[in-house]
């Protein structure tokens, strides 16, 4: 048996087999094209090359190619060599992608930055430089905490922009908030921790994931001042996960008094605070709020992400952990995936150090502020909401509807009208009841569309007053994806 | 209180505070520089800009800057603006990185491709194109299975090069073998599975990780024909993880008879086979071996990785799973990190589709074959090994030493002599005894160094014959990192 590997087409010729050599070669190529192993357009090796690899005479290969060409399987052209023909059976592996995503006329999905604002050129340049200039060590297996240069850059950035007390050795890079929580929670479980508080309302997927890891999840109510520390104290939680700068989805800002009380709670109980700082860089008028981490650096695990700052497609996040926890998190990161892409991390480090992130955020803040102002003006013009919350920062607002409006029906009818909106219920753990509300993200929607979208939404809400039955709501399309993702 | 956010330096001015406005500004800037929140070289906003943000008169900011300049904290230059001075205290966050990695004269660490061979230009180009041309959808949250185009490209490549039966919808991209195992094992645990077989000798870190997830790990012996299926059948395992094409570290190739038996075992018991196809693309003379997956596609979970083909720094891997398992793996991927970087995946898809991977592998195969030949020639010239195993493929060989040689002492003394080698014991689960052996990786060592390195190793082995005490071995540097990583 002699086999060819050279062009990564797996062919094997057996001189003891009953079939002719040409027949074997033809048959294997034909089968490879029929099953899609060789896709249409694929360049075949030259007859000389293939003959050499298989230790066949070139004539045998030439004859096989001629036969396959005659059958229409392959096409030869001067200059571009021999290729699998377009009319060869479309391989099973090339089926068109299913597109399950419903398309909406207007999309108020929260938690998404505007794709148009992604700084393609700057990011492409940083990626390119990283790939061209990475050292041999950087091309090996990574430090599970992440590239040293990137951690230094992030520590500096977080210190000046978020007042985070961060030494680079305490930074652990990860692939976003979701992985940060997975790493942290798994360390907790291995250390025997069992009770974790989360915000109610909040990010429902988080509770599900923590539950599956074996943690007991304790929802603690959020009001206008953020998470209620008295209820946290009573809950018996050993840790809490919260977003103090801009709570999701209410937009509440944790008050100064509660910050102090939360820090004291963590110190007295030896508890952990996980600070989810997902969109704090986008603040439009209120005073900037330093990260909570600075108030209790020994008890706070700070989590940031590029998902809102740049794009969720990058899967770049960072954890700043107190020293006693860093080693355990780094080891867990090593166990679960050995670390993140060094190239991506080097690119991020450069993007931050060269001031490109500052420049990008400055531009984005202007654009998002204009979009938010347009949204607030439209909400006021079309007048169907009782209150707008969380408008000082971030990429979404929460609006309260009149008490008599059926939230579930509004969401269902809005979607039927081509408007993607999410109701407050989508963020309440355990199906708890709440006043009717909508969460309106303005990250993904174009500024010019906002007024028309709000007008359409106003019409839907008006139709969904207290009068009608709730029948329509039952038909609601429940197949939509989760309300928000990090 | 009025605060500036514009250049991402967090400053707050309180008009009710007892200190002057200028004093407040100066004090906060001074503190930021002293603590490293503002690092040396950082550009400060212009006086006009800062004054506007803080709603101060420009004169106040000018005076504060002049005072700080007089103290040597900041430096103003025409054209390049005002910067934090170099002689300002080196911030705590800028400490030089520790370099814990010992340096060796010659490095036989297995499992590492040669960094010099990384196709920087081609990869940089693919990354750049991906960032410049990603669609708005691709810049959103990713499909947890990975970018569609990348999955189509991989399915085609695996079909033609590895004879893997793969539909793109059954491909789940991940960040390497380690994450693939984490995802698979967590799905198994949630489905109530408990007993998993691994190869003995094998990759010890794997057993530890599986154990921590709550799985019972059953080591099954590997001989010259690969994993022994009779012992697997007796073990009561519900799944097995193995590398049939080139076992790690013995280099054994699973024989045809055992392939058939293993596939039958999986079908009869409804068991899972995880095929670790980590370096099968590097085969130098033996017949190419199609992936085992093709023999039992309904029971095999195929795992591949770019770590050996390109670089472990990319953290790119792929799983091809039977249809009943794909959904669960995709959901698990979504839970643990929401999916991989779309940009990296798009780049990989293009790299594969444009034939750049084929070209790269062709070049690498030639280079590695030459290096392997040099290694084999040197081993034969310096004549201190009884047998060389696994030389037909991959990036390492395993060599048996004479029975009377103390393996532990050889490893320790070699390291003292600047040679990084790993002994067979590093790959045996549970401290089982074995004949003295070394694993020699030739991926990372330069071709020109090989002969000198083997000569030095021969001298060490000669010194470590049966005559001496084993005392030296006890002093062995046990702080080195794990023997191999994926």
Which helices and strands occur, and which strands form pairs?
The structure is a homodimer of 486-residue chains.
Chain A: E1 2-4, E2 11-13, H1 21-34, H2 47-54, H3 58-70, E3 74-77, E4 81-84, E5 106-107, H4 120-133, H5 148-162, E6 171-174, H6 177-190, E7 195-200, H7 204-212, E8 216-223, E9 226-227, H8 229-235, E10 239-242, H9 256-269, E11 272-276, E12 300-305, H10 306-309, E13 317-320, H11 323-337, H12 342-353, H13 356-382, E14 385-389, E15 396-401, H14 407-416, E16 419-420, E17 422-423, E18 437-441, H15 450-463, H16 471-474
Parallel strand pairs in A: 5-16, 7-8, 7-10, 10-11, 11-12
Antiparallel strand pairs in A: 1-2, 3-4, 6-13, 8-9, 12-13, 14-15, 15-18, 17-18
Helix pairs in contact in A: 1-3, 2-3, 4-12, 5-12, 6-11, 13-15
User: How many helices of chain A in DSSP terms?
Assistant: 16
N-to-C CA distance of chain A: 53 Å
Radius of gyration of chain A: 29 Å
Number of strands of chain A: 18
Describe this structure in words.
Two copies of one chain form a homodimer. In chain A, the strands form five sheets. In chain A, strands 6-13-12-11-10-7-8-9 form an eight-stranded mixed beta sheet, sandwiched between helices. A four-stranded antiparallel beta sheet of chain A has the order 14-15-18-17, covered by helices on one side. With 486 residues, chain A is of the alpha/beta class. Chain A has 16 helices and 18 strands. Chain A has helices at 21-34, 47-54, 58-70, 120-133, 148-162, 177-190, 204-212, 229-235, 256-269, 306-309, 323-337, 342-353, 356-382, 407-416, 450-463, 471-474, and strands at 2-4, 11-13, 74-77, 81-84, 106-107, 171-174, 195-200, 216-223, 226-227, 239-242, 272-276, 300-305, 317-320, 385-389, 396-401, 419-420, 422-423, 437-441. The two termini of chain A are 53 Å apart. In chain A, helix 2 packs across helix 3, helix 6 packs across helix 11 and helix 13 packs across helix 15 (450-463).
